[in-house]
Specification:
2 copies of one chain form a homodimer. Chain A has 15 helices and 16 strands. The first copy, chain A, is α/β, with parallel strands linked by helices and 392 residues long. The first copy, chain A, has an 8-stranded parallel sheet with strand order 4-14-13-12-11-10-6-5. In chain A, strand 1 and strand 2 form a beta hairpin. At the A-B interface, helix 13 and helix 14 of A face helix 13 and helix 14 of B.
Chain lengths: 392, 392
C-alpha cells in the first residue's frame, strides 16, 4: 500500500558504545540533515523575527512549519499558487510539517472530534474547518513538505487511562488511513516522506504497544508525541526509554516539542535523532538567552554595564558584534532588534549543542561531553548550589 | 569664540539652473555623505527592527539619533564606557544627534522652562532631568556625534505671535551659549560639527530674521526647525522659501523632521541638502509601503494572491526575494519579519529618490525628473483622479 520515497533516506553513521546516542544523515529532496539535529519552528511560514538565511547561518538545516496555522493563513490555495511553502517563505532546505492535530487540540475553538476527524473553528476568525487523516495528508503534500507527519489524536493531561487508550488506538487507525491517503496524494513521488507518531500518555504498556504499532508499518521515520506537555522531566525521560527500544533502529526518531538544552542532551542519550520546539525563539523574544551556565535574563540590571559579549564562546552575530550592555538596552527599550539578535543567539546555542553531540558521538566521548555540559549548565528550576551565585 | 572642525567640510558640487536644487558632499570624521541625502532615524541607538549594515545597504550614509532618548536610556555614562554611540550601536558611518529639545517639548512630563533651560521628568520612569544649551552640548559631544545640533526652544502650534517671537529670540540666545559650550567641550577637536537651527513659526519676517541670525554665526551647517508640525504643505514650502535665501550657500541646509517622498523632492527644489524623519520606518511597521504610484497598505486584500514583487523596479531585499503575497501574509499574521522587510523597502525607496535627485541635478534635468515623479506619485490625501483606480 505504501511506497518508499525515492529521494528520502536515513543512514546511521556512528553509535555511542555507552548509550543509545548515535549520529546519522537524513537525506531529503531539499538537502541533507546531519543528526542529531534541532529543528527551529517557523509556525506561520517564518521563524519569528528572522530571515531564512539567518536561520540557516545558525547551523539549522531543517525547519518545522505548522499545518494548522498554514491551513488558516495563507491557506492551501495561496501556497499552491506560490509554488509551495519553500518558495513562498524563501527557504531552500528541508521542511517538516506537523499534522495540525496538536494545534487543533490546543488552539482552535469548539472542536468536535469523532472517528472521521476533527471539526473546529479557527482561533483567528471563527471560520469552520475540518481536519482528518486524509485532509492532513492532502494539505502537507500540497505544501510541498519534505517530511509529513501523520495525524494523531492528542489528549491533554491529566487524562483518564481509558481516554488515553482510546486516543492511542484511534491514532493507530488514523495512521493506517494516513498511509493510504499519503500514497493517494502522490507523496512519495513528490519527494515527501511520512513519519508516524506514537502516543500512549504516561502508560509504559501503551507506549510500548504504540511504538510496536508504528514499527510494524512501512514509514520513513518515527515520532514520539504527547510528551513535554506538563509531565515531570523524569516521567518524560522514562517514557522515551520505554519507547525507543521498540522503534526501528534504521529510521530517524523524532521527539516532538522538546527544545531545552538539557532535554536535548538527555534525549540524544536515549536514542533521539530529531527535535523541534518554539522554546529558543520564544525565550529570545522575552529576553531569556541560553549561556553555557544556564539561561540569563537580559533585562536584569547586572547586564547594564557589561561592555563585553553575552557569551564569549559563541560565534553568533549578537555575541560577535554587540555587547551585553547593548542587548540589555535593546530589551529595556523594547526594541525589536533585541528579539532578533537573541533569536539568532538561542538558535545558534542549540545548534552548537547538537554539533558538540555529533562530534562527541563520532569521537566516542559522548558520556564525557554530556557530563561536562551537565556539570556547568544549570536548568531552570534546578536547586541552586550552596555558595554559588545565582545566574540572573 | 568658535573654531572650525578640521575633519568637517561641505562642498557644493552641482547647481540646478532652474531651481535651488544642488548636489554636494559633506565630509565628517566617520565618512562622507553625498547630498541631497535622507537620514534614517535611530531613535534609541537602533533604526527600529534593522541592523546597522541593513540600514547601510539601503543606501543611507548618515543616521539621526535622539539625545532625549539616549540621555534617559542607556544614559551618557554607559555610552561613554562603551566607547561612544558609534561603537555601542555598531554603526561606523556619520551620526547626527538632535539636541533633545523637540522630544522634551513633545514627550516629557511636567516641563518647566526658563532662560536657563528646561527641567523635565522622564516619560519612562518620572525621574527628573535638566536640559540646557550647555548640557545639550556636553551630551552630544560625549556621545561622539559627528553633527551636533544646537538646543532650540520649540513652541507647539497653534501659538500666539508673541510666544513664537519669544521662543525664536531665546533660540538665538541659546545658540550663542551652545557655540561657547561646544568649544568648551572640545567638540571640534573630537571631530564634531555644530549646526544652528532657525525657528520663526509661520511668520515670514521672523523666519528671515532667524535665518540671518544663524548665518551671522560661525557654524558648520544650518537647520530649519519648527516645520512639519501640523501646518499645511503650502505653508511649509513657503517658510522654506523665505528661509533658504538667507542661509549661507556654503553650508549644508537641513530640513528637520521631513520625510515624505513629495516633501523630499519639494525641499530639494528649494535648496535643502539634508532631511530626517521617522516616517519611512514608522509607516513600514504599520504595513504602509512606498511605491512609485504612492503608498500602499500591505494588509489590503488586493495583495493576498499577488505572487510578484511589491515594486518590480525596486532592488531591496523585500522586492528582490519575496512576493507581495508573502509580505501580506506576514502583516496579516503580525509577524515581525514583515516590519523588517517593509522598513528596508521604505528606506531603500527614499534613498533611491535621493539618488535620482542627485543624478538629475548633475545631469541638469532636475525639473524633468521632479515632474516625472510628481506625475506618477500620488501623495496621501491628494484628490483621486477621475477614472483612475485608487491605490490601496
Amino acid at each position: 500500500m505504501t511506497a518508499a520515497t525515492p529521494s528520502f533516506s536515513f543512514t546511521v553513521l556512528d553509535r555511542d558504545p555507552r548509550s543509545r546516542a548515535r549520529t546519522g544523515r537524513v537525506v531529503t529532496s531539499h538537502g541533507a540533515i546531519e543528526t542529531p539535529a534541532f529543528m527551529p519552528v517557523g509556525t506561520q511560514a517564518t521563524v519569528k523575527t528572522l530571515l531564512p538565511e539567518e536561520v540557516g547561518a545558525t547551523g539549522a538545516r531543517v525547519l518545522l512549519c505548522n499545518t494548522y496555522h498554514l491551513m488558516l493563513r495563507p491557506g492551501p490555495e495561496i501556497l499552491r499558487e506560490a509554488g509551495g511553502l519553500h518558495r513562498f517563505m524563501g527557504w531552500d532546505g528541508p521542511i517538516l510539517t506537523d499534522s495540525g492535530g496538536f494545534q487543533v487540540f490546543s488552539l482552535a475553538n469548539t472542536r468536535r472530534i469523532d472517528e472521521g476527524g476533527v471539526r473546529f473553528r479557527s482561533h483567528v476568525d471563527g471560520s469552520a474547518h475540518d481536519l482528518s487523516p486524509e485532509r492532513a495528508m492532502a494539505l502537507q503534500v500540497g505544501f510541498g513538505s519534505d517530511i509529513v507527519m501523520a495525524l494523531d489524536h492528542v489528549v491533554g493531561l491529566p487524562a483518564a487511562g481509558a481516554d488515553i487508550r482510546l486516543a492511542t488506538e484511534r491514532t493507530h487507525r488514523w495512521l493506517d488511513r494516513c498511509i493510504v491517503a499519503f500514497a493517494a496524494e502522490g507523496g512519495p513521488g513528490r519527494g515527501a516522506a511520512l513519519f508516524g507518531i506514537c502516543q500512549g500518555g504516561m502508560d509504559p504498556g501503551l507506549r510500548r504497544q504504540s511504538a510496536q504499532f508504528i514499527a510494524s508499518r512501512e514509514l520513513a521515520g518515527s515520532a514520539i508525541g504527547g510528551l513535554s506537555v506538563g509531565e515531570t522531566k523524569d516521567e518524560m525521560l522514562s517514557m522515551i526509554e520505554v519507547t525507543v527500544p521498540h522503534l526501528p533502529a534504521d529510521r530517524p526518531r523524532y521527539l516532538m516539542g522538546v527544545g531545552s538544552p538539557e532535554d536535548l542532551w538527555n534525549g540524544v542519550a536515549r536514542g533521539v535523532d530529531l527535535f523541534d520546539c518554539v522554546l529558543p525563539t520564544r525565550l529570545a523574544r522575552n529576553a531569556a538567552l541560553f549561556t553555557p551556565d544556564g539561561r540569563i535574563n537580559m533585562k536584569g540590571a547586572r547586564w547594564r554595564d557589561v561592555h563585553a559579549p553575552v557569551d564569549d564562546t559563541c560565534d553568533c552575530r549578537a555575541c560577535a558584534r554587540f555587547t551585553a550592555a547593548y542587548l540589555h538596552h535593546l530589551f529595556r527599550t523594547g526594541e525589536i532588534l533585541g528579539m532578533r539578535l537573541a533569536s539568532e543567539h538561542n538558535l545558534r546555542f542549540l545548534a552548537r549543542q547538537m554539533e558538540r553531540m555529533r562530534e562527541a558521538i563520532r569521537a566516542g566521548t559522548f558520556d564525557d561531553a554530556h557530563a561536562r555540559f551537565a556539570a556547568r549548565y544549570r536548568p531552570v528550576g534546578a536547586p541552586s548550589v550552596a555558595g554559588e551565585e545565582a545566574v540572573a
